[in-house]
Amino acid sequence: MRSMNEFKDNHPAAFQSAQEAISWIVGRMEKLGIKPGLQRMQMLMEKLGHPERRLKFIHVAGTNGKGSTCAYLTSVLRACGYDVGTFTSPYLEKYTNRIQVNGEDIPDADLLRLVNDMKPVIDEIAETELGAPSMFEISTALAIMYFGKVAYPDYVVWETGLGGRLDSTNIVNPVVTVITNVGHDHMDILGDTIEKVAAEKAGIIKAGVPIITAAQPHEGWSVIEQTAKAKKATLYSLGDQFNYANVTSQLDLQTFDFTGQFRPIPGVPISLNGEHQLKNAAVAVMTLEVLRQYYACIVDDEDLYKGLKETRWPGRLEMISNEPRVLLDGAHNPEGAATLAAALQTVYSYRKLNLMMGMLSTKNHTGYLRHILPLVDTLIITEPDFHKKGDAEMLAELARELLHDMDRQVDIVVERDWKRALEILTSRTEQDDLAVVSGTLYLISDVRSWITYQTDSEKGW
């Protein structure tokens, strides 16, 4: 097996700027799409000298809540004085958002150097029977190279891209594993039943590595339990080994009492909104408790409280504007819509609710709409600027059918151009009303960048 140095010596730099390198990586999404499987990643890691073996990963999978859980873990570990790498997807504004150390994106200079180092290896693998590595595989390898050869963080919070078992992030052997929950998402790829989806998520469970989950029996929990048992991985399950109880709940501040196998922790504060965030935070706390017990990770209560309270997670129940009030939420499946609907009924007050949505063509739109339609006064349906976008008119037709069944009247507007749709949304939202933008994160990222910076995002997997 040739070393990285040989590759560098024999190949001049392929890219002259970070943007050039990023364009090459992101361009592979259209060309190659998603390529489940670990063989290309295994070959990549071998040729790159296995930098993943130097790092302590916290591997997080789940249908909903994994991004928030990763944000809680990162914030607390940083508050405790640890250097923390994070790898998340999809990113909201810039490609480099997905690879961070202590909240700072990978620097352009490091990205350019590492991609130029990796390019000959990637080209060599493309010539084998395994074929060319995908955009997500290269991004995963880039993150591992940055963490393992440049930044050396104490912990890496490592979010799966899709599923788990065949996801490129599953190349690592973590110190702890998290499966937030199992729901109806990516069923076109992961399987057409909850049990099949659960089996894919459970594929990240490793022999002897503790696993924390908030999955419930109807979410394929038994599949997770059986996998953990087979792998001799200690399972910490919400409702059994740990629990939480809501103490106070107001806008931008909630507290809960945590009870776990090791100790109780009263009055835990969080600033993220929605009842579901208590569950995500409880999963994060149990994960940190396991790190304390198994790996002597030092987590003082003061730092735990500070880290949880300071956690922010853009694009999820995020009030991005106050005049008019515009709330962003990346709910894009039935479970996410149920969570959003619950928050709209309990956390926020409004006279009229105007909701703009845009979806990918692969999602369960009926389940989403069943939760949302009973609440909205105006529904504006648009299309995300992405190649798998869902057709706005087809979505509108589905919404009309469901509204007919509900015997409910809602003003439906179809505007395929999301910027014009956003103008309609804000122009219709008066002082006491609430505007919500929901759906695929590809739409959320565009709207967020446009409202915040008046620029387009560089969104993508």
Q: State the major sheet.
A: 8 strands, mixed
Strands in their spatial order, largest beta sheet: 4-3-2-5-1-6-7-8
Mean pLDDT, all residues: 91
Instruction: State the end-to-end distance.
Output: 31 Å
Shape: globular
DSSP strand (E) fraction? 15-25%
Task: State the total count of DSSP E strands.
Answer: 17
Number of helical stretches of at least 4 residues: 16
Percent helix:
40-55%
Low-confidence segments: none
Structural class: alpha/beta
C-alpha-based Rg, rounded: 22 Å
Domain Mur ligase central: 60-287
Keywords: ATP-binding, Ligase, Magnesium, Metal-binding, Nucleotide-binding
Organism: Paenibacillus anseongense
Catalytic activity: (6S)-5,6,7,8-tetrahydrofolyl-(gamma-L-Glu)(n) + L-glutamate + ATP = (6S)-5,6,7,8-tetrahydrofolyl-(gamma-L-Glu)(n+1) + ADP + phosphate + H(+)
Could you walk me through the main structural features you see in this protein, from its secondary elements to its overall organization?
This protein has 461 residues and is α/β, with parallel strands linked by helices. The chain contains 16 helices and 17 strands. The chain has helices at residues 4-10, 18-32, 39-47, 66-79, 108-126, 135-151, 187-190, 194-201, 221-230, 276-295, 301-309, 334-346, 365-372, 392-406, 418-428, 441-453, and strands at 57-61, 84-87, 99-101, 104-105, 155-159, 176-179, 211-213, 235-237, 242-250, 253-260, 264-270, 318-322, 325-329, 353-358, 378-381, 411-414, 434-439. The strands form 3 sheets. It has an 8-stranded mixed beta sheet with strand order 4-3-2-5-1-6-7-8, with helices on both faces. α9 (221-230) links the parallel β7 (211-213) and β8 (235-237). α2 (18-32) runs antiparallel to α6, α8 packs parallel to α9 (221-230) and α12 (334-346) runs parallel beside α13. The longest helix is centred in the middle third of the chain and has 20 residues, at 276-295. The radius of gyration is 22 Å and the shape is globular. Its EC number is 6.3.2.17. It is an enzyme of class 6 (ligase). It comes from Paenibacillus anseongense.
